[in-house]
Amino acid sequence: MSVPSLNVQMTMWVAIGPLLLSNGVRGENATSTIVEVKRYHQMMVTRDELFRPWTVGQVAERSGLSVSALHFYERQGLIFSTRSDGNQRRFGRDTLRRLAFIRAAQSVGISLADIGEALDRLPRQRTPREQDWTRLAEGWRDQLDARIEQLERLRDDLTTCIGCGCLSFERCKLVNPADRLAVEGAGARRFAVGTPRPTVDDRD
To answer: DSSP secondary-structure letter at 54?
Structure first.
């Protein structure tokens, strides 16, 4: 990466020089500090780098996913690439946000089909902006709320009667005597999303 031009170096000194001197930073210490500022400048993402397409290896390194996983997600239509003049895959930097979304959704058990349906709400002809992701989040809110409730039930309610018909807990004799909750339908009648949660007394 190129070293900052003389103009840039002078601008940096004008910006931080008085501050360094006012704090007693002189001589070699000041020179060391300027070197650190130069290094910071070199690490900054330039506009060209921001919009430069990434190779599949670069995306894999930054996202923490394997190249094979990226190829799989592309086959599933969850991410997209273009081709270079040498017919190599190139990805936009916004692919990283898609991948983060996919990984987070998968980690709580959401299917790739549902993930793909949500991602289909994003524009493909341009980089999705903040408002595009906001619309996606709003459209998914009910589904995520239901998922959160299911996870809370899984965390909190397994220690009491859930109306599944096992009748193996002492509380089953009070909450679901003779499996009376079976008349409401199959499954754990106090475990499904939208059904009444066990009370504090039920968990005692």
So the answer is: B
